[in-house]
Amino acid sequence: MRCAGFTGKAQYPITMLAWGSTMLMNPDDQISPAMAELVVDGKPVYKVDARPSQALVVHCGDPRFQSAFRLFITRELGFQNYTPLIIGGGVHAFGAQSFLPKNFKTLWGQIKFFVKVGQVKQVVIINHEDCLWYKKMQGYEAKLKLPVLGRQDLQTAARTILRDFTGVQVRSFWAALEGDNISFTEVPPA
Ligand SMILES: [Zn+2]
What we know:
By secondary structure, this protein is α/β, with parallel strands linked by helices.
């Protein structure tokens, strides 16, 4: 599914399915041996993946982006097993802390939990273009355009995570739409 775009960067086709519909994925792209389906006593069963988590990855639940997120994380970043934290608007709540304090409390609590319990040393945060959650947050930094705001929130989130966890590396990415494709750009710390 991955193909080289004209910019020379990896691009991933957007999943053109309506919200709420089932994701259709190419099994060759998604199934690792650890995920292989077996049949035991006539019933499908699925293997526990006992490999340690290499990273906590926070991103939005927009179904158009899930295939691209997974391919980017497993192939480009090379994580064989990771902890996905999927929440509408990705890390929006770090920037919108005073605007949506409950969202921040929930997201921050989840991140702290998975970093501590999973003992992950790397956190990857991704925000994306055309995020419907951001569009829904009317009144939140209305003067800033979404790509600016989304990147700014990534930087705020990275700062907060780094401040609380020593020895944890944070990488931030902006997922941009280019026609029917999605490409990822690393966002440097502020
Ligand atoms: Zn979104």
